[in-house]
Amino acid sequence: MSSLSLSQMLVLSACGVAVAYALVLLAHSVRARRWPSVDGVIADAHLVGVPDTEGAHLSEYVAYSYTIDGRSYRNDRLRFGPHVRAPSSVPQYDPEPDFPTTRAELERHYPRGRPVRVFYDPQHPEVSVLSRAPSPLVWILLGVAVVFGYATLFGHR
């Protein structure tokens, strides 16, 4: 293999960071398989605008509460992967809900007060998820990074 150009090194560096990030999230997911669980309830669910290259898209925000050893906790991480925060990153990008889901669908899946099973880290009970499986976006990120890295190294020159 000949020496790499600057652009190839930058692409490989970005791919390496993406692979490392995906592997860390996958490792969290594997470790969470040993976490205990506790009953919790949905505390809040709404759509928030998240800026992107086309302006913004809507993402669902879901928060839940749970109690461990008499201490109450609240979290908003559904699974390991991209994490949407409660307020919009850019509030003016909160359009009427139409993508990726409607408000009615979100409220049907996550109505306030609905009981849920919460998996929590026994060493740090404030760290929790509703699903121990990683987000499908983690697998997509890993796959895209590997393909781009491979193409950069071995693709047509």
Task: Write a concise synopsis of the structure shown.
By secondary structure, this protein is an alpha+beta fold. The chain folds into 2 domains: 1-33 and 132-157; 36-131, no CATH class. The chain has helices at residues 6-32, 103-109, 136-154; strands at 37-52, 55-68, 71-75, 115-121, 124-129.
Describe this structure in words.
- By secondary structure, this protein is α+β, with helices and mostly antiparallel strands.
- It has two domains: 59 residues; 96 residues, no CATH class.
- Helix content is 34%, strand content 31%.
- It contains three helices and five strands, in the order αβββαββα.
- The protein has a five-stranded antiparallel sheet, with helices on one face.
- A hairpin with a 2-residue loop joins strand 1 and strand 2.
- The longest helix has 27 residues.
- It starts with 5 loop residues before the first helix and ends with a helix.
- About 9% of the residues have low confidence.
Global morphology: elongated
Helical residue percent band: 25-40%
Largest sheet: 5 strands, antiparallel
Which regions are unreliable across 5 or more consecutive residues at pLDDT < 50?
A: 87-100
Distance between the termini: 11 Å
Task: Tell me the strand order in the biggest sheet.
Answer: 3-2-1-4-5
Task: Please outline the helices and strands.
Blueprint: H1 6-32, E1 37-52, E2 55-68, E3 71-75, H2 103-109, E4 115-121, E5 124-129, H3 136-154
